[in-house]
Here is the input.
Amino acid sequence: MNADGTVRAFIRPGMRVAIVQKADQISGKTTQGIVKEILTNSPTHPHGIKVRLETGAVGRVKRIIHDCVSLRPKAP
Here is the structure.
């Protein structure tokens, strides 16, 4: 898996990721959270796929922390 967040196919809602928000691009400060929505339409992006977290924060994925989707029980 590409853990750096530049490939859209590897990112899904429910995954825990670290993003860099626009205001934090210079410092490189990351924010962790769960992906709510994928905002980038292209299959790849050199600076990271843009997502919205469940908290409402928007930024580019710098790192996939782990896949929470596979840990959730499947609906009957």
